[in-house]
Amino acid sequence: MAVVGGQRQRLRDLGGAGGGDGGGDQLKHSDGPWMRAAGGADALHTLLGPVRSELETAHEGVVAGAAGLKALTELGAVRESWQRRIEAARGECRGLAGNLREVARAQGETNEAVRRSFAPVAARGGGQ
After folding, report:
1. Number of H-type helices and E-type strands within the chain
2. Any residues with CB less than 8 A from the CB of 19 and at least 6 apart, and which?
3. How does pLDDT run across 25-63, given as a tens digit for each residue?
């Protein structure tokens, strides 16, 4: 029993207004938000894919037009820094997508295990 709002509440009371009338199905896990977030992370990973080569192409144009300038060394260091950041972001997105899918899977398994654990109580008439 739990104390909620100063009153004792039984598990059967969580079923809804009818109090244990089978309304326990109202609390369900949905993997939809987790899977949508994983899809977003996958999309970002994909969108960042061509950025590195686009950055290299843009840098080649600068090098050709500014040969001999001292700033090219600094520009090269900045370009390399951005390339590392882009690859790190892509890796983070790839890992995040997998982790989000794993959360959805694990929650689904946990919900099923909890449901199975209550089956003996339900078979005895809901423990009333």
Report:
1. 3, 2
2. 12, 13
3. 555 678 899 999 999 999 999 999 999 899 888 887 776
Q: At residue 36, what is the residue type? A: R
The C-alpha atoms of residue 21 and residue 102 are separated, in whole angstroms, by: 33
As to burial, measured by CB atoms within 10 angstroms (0-12 exposed, 13-18 middle, 19+ buried), residue 51 is middle
Q: How far apart are CA 28 and CA 26, in angstroms?
A: 6
Q: Which two tokens stand for residue 10?
A: 């039984």
3-state secondary structure 33-46: HHHHHHHHHHHHHH
Kindly give, in sequence order, each residue whose CB lies less than 8 Å from that of residue 128, ignoring residues fewer than 6 positions away.
Answer: 12, 20
Q: Does pTM surpass 0.90?
A: no
- Which two tokens mark 35? 């899977």
Q: Residue 81 and residue 21: Cα distance in Å, rounded?
A: 61
